């Protein structure tokens, strides 16, 4: 089976850096649409930062201009260093930035205050899907998409509850038997 992280690392190695920067800029600016965080980017206006993915290796440099991200060829104010897996964990929020930093898996160099401010902004970002959808789609489509999302979530929750209930009923009815060695008497569940 193909490992997505390995495939992504391969793509990072073979594609030119300006392409990576352009795609990341487009993605981040799209994700920022409708988000409260976008309003706070003014606090870092003109600051440049670089992501150094050491195991690929690749360095991508960006600038915060107004309320969006742009590519930059100038020296960064802050450099973040780590492995691809650590940056993926950071982006997916499966790892806390402080944990990565204190485990020395993520390094911050340059203007410490700017790096800390950027980290705090990203930490406080609670992605608001409904606001994003309303900003991206025309009102009738946004309403339909959000209604569909709400219905899909309710349907998923219903399935989850039915599965939990079904498992609970099977246990009560003795549908699942525990496997124990022959010398240990079997317990029955009421």
Explain what the structure shows.
- With 190 residues, the chain is an alpha+beta fold.
- It has 2 domains: 4-127, SCP2 sterol-binding domain (Nonspecific Lipid-transfer Protein, Chain A), CATH 3.30.1050; 137-172.
- The protein has 8 helices and 5 strands.
- Strands 3-2-1-4-5 form a 5-stranded mixed sheet.
Would you kindly provide a brief summary of this structure?
The protein has 190 residues and is α+β, with helices and mostly antiparallel strands. The protein has helices at 4-14, 17-32, 36-40, 84-92, 97-102, 112-123, 129-136, 139-172, and strands at 48-53, 58-65, 68-71, 78-82, 107-110.
CATH architecture classification name of the largest domain: 2-Layer Sandwich
The CATH superfamily label of the largest domain reads: SCP2 sterol-binding domain
Question: What is the element string, with H for helices and E for strands?
Answer: HHHEEEEHHEHHH
Report the top-level CATH class of the largest domain.
Alpha Beta
Strand content: 5-15%
Rg (CA only): 24 Å
Q: What structural class do the secondary elements suggest? A: alpha+beta
CATH topology label of the largest domain: Nonspecific Lipid-transfer Protein, Chain A
Q: Quaternary state, please?
A: single chain
pLDDT < 50 runs, ≥5 residues: none
Shape field: globular
Blueprint (SSEs and pairs):
Layout: H1 4-14, H2 17-32, H3 36-40, E1 48-53, E2 58-65, E3 68-71, E4 78-82, H4 84-92, H5 97-102, E5 107-110, H6 112-123, H7 129-136, H8 139-172
Parallel strand pairs: 1-4
Antiparallel strand pairs: 1-2, 2-3, 4-5
Helix pairs in contact: 7-8
């Amino acid at each position: 089976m193909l490992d997505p992280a390995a495939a992504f690392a391969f793509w990072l190695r073979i594609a030119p850096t300006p392409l990576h920067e352009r795609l990341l800029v487009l993605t981040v600016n799209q994700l920022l649409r409708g988000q409260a965080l976008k309003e706070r980017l003014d606090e870092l206006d003109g600051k440049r930062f670089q992501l150094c993915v050491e195991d690929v290796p690749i360095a991508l440099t960006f600038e915060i201009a107004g309320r969006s991200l742009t590519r930059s060829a100038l020296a960064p104010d802050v450099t973040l260093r780590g492995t691809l897996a650590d940056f993926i964990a950071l982006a997916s929020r499966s790892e806390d930035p402080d944990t990565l930093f204190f485990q020395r898996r993520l390094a911050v160099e340059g203007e410490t205050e700017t790096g800390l401010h950027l980290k705090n902004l990203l930490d406080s970002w609670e992605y608001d899907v409904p606001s994003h959808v309303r900003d991206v789609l025309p009102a009738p489509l946004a309403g339909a998409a959000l209604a569909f999302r709400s219905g899909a979530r309710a349907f998923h929750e219903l399935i989850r509850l039915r599965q939990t209930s079904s498992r609970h009923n099977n246990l009560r009815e003795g549908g699942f038997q525990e496997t124990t060695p022959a010398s240990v008497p079997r317990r029955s569940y009421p």
